[in-house]
Structure formats: structure tokens, C-alpha cells
User: Fold these one by one.
Assistant:
Number 1:
Amino acid sequence: MGSTPKNVLAALTAALLWAFAFVAPAAVRPASELLLVTGRYSLFGLCGLWVLWRGRRQLRLIPVRRIVFGLWIGFVGYFVFYICVSYSATMDSGFITAVVVGSSPITIAVAGNFAEKRMSWRELVAPVILILIGLGLLSVSDLIQGEGRDGAGDSILAILLALGAMLTWSYFVVRNAQSQRTWETKPDPTLWAGLVAMGAGGASMVLLPFAIASTPPETFEPYPLFKIVAWCVFLGVIASWWGTLIWVKAAQGIPVPLVGPLLATETIFGAVLSLPVENRLPTGAEVTGALFVLAGIAVYLFFDVKNSRLRARSTDGGDGSRATASEMAAPT
């Protein structure tokens, strides 16, 4: 994976795998959202536990505070994030959930600009406005389609949950990047993925018995049971664990300005995949709102790439090293 084209292809593969998280909640009905989340991340956590056991000698060299931090961001960035995504997608629309969560590059940009100024605040105005217009169109369209007051209430709560997922994921990305920039010695990518997996898996294993007990009885009939087990295995082992490893390794050879566009493709994949599951075509307002969101992301990326090139030119006299996206690895 030495060349950028191969790394980009690998990162796109990871983004496609993660995008299935947006359609799984509707696909496993009548299983509860909590059962899907706890089942998925219990398997993800077991993968992490196996890796940490194999690398226990290296693990002992990592300070306890960093181990705790890895577990914490795994809990917040995976478990809490997907709780919000699952309930949002099943209460309303996987398409809208995917698009709202996909606006997180702007949230990351604002939070990241406070921590490490990458562009002027004036340059952030246009992308933020475009994103807000897009979210407004999606929200209004969804409320209009809601059936009565209960439908409208569900739509509002679903959008709030999607916004919660967006903020949670943004926190994960920014804190993960900040922490790794301040460490003199970065942990092995596989071990770090194992810690993150255990953070998500630990909470899931605790709640799994409750999730099973609160699941509708019809879920345990042969076909629904097969569906939920198959989706948990796919999301937990292939999408979460394998996708995480692909991203972490690929990100080591990807320039930082490419991180945003690659992460944004997860949203596009998720929105497209959700439509066949919901057995419908997107409405005009949804398409327009999504285009505004993507336009906002594109404008932000334009300024970010421009500023990155200016910074690179100003530091040409240095050691010639080039930052990569390894410290920004933040899959969902």
C-alpha cells in the first residue's frame, strides 16, 4: 500500500463497508436497534480483545492514561455514535440520517479550527451556510411527509439523534487527531484499533443481555434470527474490524487534504444504499438538500486544499516531510 492511488482505493473500500451501518437498522426489523448495536460491537470488541491479547507485551509499554483514552474514544466514537444512528434511521429515514451525519466535516472543521487554525473564519462562513440550508431543506421535507403530529415528532427526534451522531463522531475525529499529534511515540495502529474496539465492545457486552431480553419474541424465529446474526457478523467483523484496519493502514499514505473527501464518500454510499432498503426514490427536496450539504463540504475542501498548498510552499525549506492522514483515522 505504498502509493496514494492504492491507499485511496483501500480507503474508499473502508468507507463503503462503514456505509452499511446506515441501512442495517431497517434491514434487521423486527429486531431492536439495541440488539443490533450490542451484537455488532460485542463481536467488534472480541476482535479487539484477541489483538490486544496477542500484543500484550507491547500493550504494557503504553501508559495507562493512553489506554483509558483509547477505550473512551472507542466507547463514544463507536458505541454512542451508532446508538444515535440506529434509532435515527429506524425512526425516520436512513437517507436523511446519512446526509446529516455526513455534514460532520464542517463540525470537524469548526472544532479543528479552534484547536489548530487551518483557515480563516471568514472562509468557513460559506460552507457552514450551505450545510445549514441543506439540513433545513431535509428537515422541512421530512416534517411535511410526516403523518400527523406523531410523525412530525418522530422526525424531529430522528433529526436530533442524527445531529447527536454527527457531533459524537466529530468529537472522536478531533480528539483522536489532537491526542496523537501530542504523543512523541505513536502506538501501533493494530493495537490502537484493538483498544478502540474494546471501548465499544465493553459497553456492548454489558448491555447485550438486556438487549436480548427487550427484543420482540418474533425476532427469534428462524428467518429474523438469521438476519440479525448475519448483519451483526458483517458489521462487527467485516465492516467495523476489517474496515478499521484497512483505513488505519491506508491512512498512513494519504495526504491530509484527502481525508475529508474520502470520509464524505461514506455518507454518499450510505444515502444511496438506504434507498433500496426503504423501497423508494429520493424526493426533490431530499436531493436538493443533499446537494447543498455536498456543496458545503466541497467548498470547505477547496479552501482546505488551497491553504494546505500554501503552507507546504512556505515550509519547503524544512526537512521535506509531508503530513499524512494516519493521525486522522476515524472510521464509524
Number 2:
Amino acid sequence: MSTGEPDYDRLLRSNLERVFNERNAARRTAAVAELSGADPVMFESANVVRGQSAIVDAAGQLLAQFGADFAFVPIGHAVGHHGLARLSWQAGPRTGPVAVTGTDVAEIVDSRIARLWVLLNPTA
């Protein structure tokens, strides 16, 4: 039985892998175009990023800042309903240690990310 809900896990995992782990700008651009609405907004703790190209650039800058071995890894499965979903993740060098953990919370409209809140967990 179909609930009419999008596949929240696939969508948020794809966003993490194909946007925030993708170092190739052309592939990152294609992923944002596929996964996001026409005018997405990403809310970070100190910044608001508006539009597909700005999100592509912000992800690229983040990857450049942390180096080639840095990656985001999902923790568990994304859950959601009625257009709201969340996915927890951790990030750091692929061989460890974990540098940061957080959660992406997304508003989903027409099976695409309309708004994304990036929530960082406090460090110990």
C-alpha cells in the first residue's frame, strides 16, 4: 500500500552523498538540480544559503576547507512524514576520528528538498 510519501531516506542520503560529498562541481550541480526544488534554501547556524547554485558553491567550499579525505556519513535511516524529514550524520576523515556530528532536517515539497536546516551537535 502506497502512502503517497516520498522516499525520505533515499532523498536525504542522496543529498548527503551526491551534494555534500561530491567534489566534482558538475556532478554536484546536477544532483542539486535533481534533488532540490527550483529555489531551495539551506539554513546553517551562521548563514542562509539561497538558490541551487549557491548551495552547490557552499558544498564545494566546505569540501575544499576540510580536504580530500573528509566525508559525511549517514547515521541510521532518515525518517519523515507529511513533508518533513531528518537524517543524522557524522563527518570527518574517512579513516577517523569523527570531527563533527549533526542532523539535516528538510522540508520536502513535490518530492524535492525545498528547505534544509543543518543542525550541528555541540562538541564535547
